[in-house]
Amino acid sequence: MNVVLAELSKLRTLPLTGFTVAGILACTALLAAADQAVDIIMYVQAGFVLLGIIPVAHEHAGRQFGTTLIAVPARGRLLVAKSLATAVVMALTAAATAVLGGAERPVGAAAYLVFIGLFAYAVAVVVRQLIPALVGMLSLILIVSPVLADHGRWLPDRAAAELYQGSATIGALGALAWVALIGAVATVQFLRRDL
Amino acid sequence: MNALKAELYKASTLPAVWAGFALTVVGCIALEVLLASQGDVTGTDSLPMGTVGAAVIGVVAFSSEYTANSADAGGGRQITTTLTTTPSKTRVLLTKALTIVILIVLSAVVAMPVAVGIARPDVPADELLTSCLGATLYWVLSGLLGFAITVVLRNGVIPLILLILNSSLVSVSLLLTKLTSLAYWLPDLAGRRLFGSGVRTVDSGLDAVPGGLVMAGWAVLLCLLAGFVFARRDA
């Protein structure tokens, strides 16, 4: 429990987290106010990608990861706590976004946003650096998956988009499968790798 | 000349620059293969894909200067060393911009002939050449825009999000055109027709030549602003 609180406190005191959340909510409010028939989720998911990457990338930007491991030597516990803290921040932001944006299926939309954020988080655990994780994720969800059209319907974002666009069951299964896959890779990396 | 050589050397040792290079080349070629498997292609319809790689090159070439070293190695930033060896800030910016242009043109030289070769389109050679040159110009200008924003912000995150988002289907500029037609004058949309007739693009907006000029104007303006800010500010 203390570890989760510590992780939450780290996130809270990181200016970039606050700016990202504020940016997401401001964009949502603006898009909702403009009252155009646009898929707000498609736009704000970029913010959730950043929100997922920050908690990992900032640890590796300096010496903080060393300090963190001294404080919590059990890496498994650390990863669980970090993931929980990230998920909490993400879920709150996603819920606010879905409500503020007036999504047709708010629960599905919020679940999709949390999934995108957690997926980016897992990718960041693997690659550890902000820029590669950010470029990779944004290229995947904004460029590759729209370009591939029907060929890409099993890509993570498209599979999970079923959560609010089509069948919620299929969306949930797709999202879980992807999280399990990348989560397993991330966990092994996190437990095994040097500082 | 020495400064340019140094910048080229620095850029070529950055893994992120090579990632951007690969993103352009592999992205364009892979997309062209996919499109060619589906039907008629023009050989240049995959080229908007390369904008992402160009943006990455433009952004990381400068944001890397501000990335702090590991604390174990003193925690310094490369920019201080760069400015010690090349005290003229104008020269640093100019050589940096030139390096970015060279790298992006190089990626175009590698990617475009392969993409066109895969497609083997029924398009006259001169039209193909115009489209390829236009696309190269669009890539270069996008890279320079990313570079200029990075110089001003001293951080690569925001320009990367902006440029990748705007080269996608959910472009913010495209969204703004629904509010006001002035949005067609934004850099990424103004230059859209540089890709030639082979690319499905926005229905209205500026033509290739005026649009290219507007986009170039944006790039020059932002680079001037970057130069002003960079010259006035502490490293």
Structure notes:
The complex is a heterodimer of chains A (195) and B (235). Chain A has 195 residues and is mainly α. Chain A has one domain. Chain A is globular. The two termini of chain B are 23 Å apart. The model of chain B has no long low-confidence stretch (mean pLDDT 88). Classes of the chains: A mainly alpha (195), B mainly alpha (235). The interface between A and B is medium-sized, with 25 and 30 residues. Chain A: It comes from Kribbella antibiotica. Chain A: Keywords: Membrane, Transmembrane, Transmembrane helix.
What is this structure's SSE topology?
The complex is a heterodimer of chains A (195) and B (235).
Chain A: H1 2-12, H2 15-34, H3 40-60, H4 64-71, H5 75-100, H6 106-127, H7 130-148, H8 156-165, H9 168-192
Helix pairs in contact in A: 1-5, 2-3, 2-5, 3-5, 3-6, 3-7, 5-6, 6-7, 6-8, 6-9, 8-9
Chain B: H1 2-12, H2 15-38, H3 50-66, H4 78-85, H5 89-119, H6 125-153, H7 157-166, H8 172-176, H9 187-190, H10 208-232
The number of E-state strands of chain A comes to: 0
Please estimate the helix content of chain B.
Answer: 55-70%
Q: Overall 3D geometry of chain B?
A: globular
Based on CA atoms alone, the radius of gyration of chain A comes out at 16 Å
Assembly status: heterodimer
Total count of domains of chain B:
1
> End-to-end distance of chain A, in Å?
24 Å
**How many DSSP H or I helices of chain B?**
10
- Tell me the total number of β-strands of chain B: 0
Structural class given helices, strands, pairing of chain B? mainly alpha
Percentage of residues in strands of chain B: under 5%
**Could you tell me the mean pLDDT of chain B?**
88
In total, the number of domains of chain A comes to 1
User: Which stretches of chain A of 5+ consecutive residues score pLDDT under 50?
Assistant: none
How do the SSEs of chain B run, as a string of H and E?
HHHHHHHHHH
Shape label of chain A: globular
Keywords (chain A): Membrane, Transmembrane, Transmembrane helix
Transmembrane segments (chain A): 12-34, 40-58, 79-100, 106-123, 130-149, 169-191
Protein name (chain A): ABC transporter permease
Transmembrane segments (chain B): 12-35, 97-116, 128-153, 160-186, 208-231
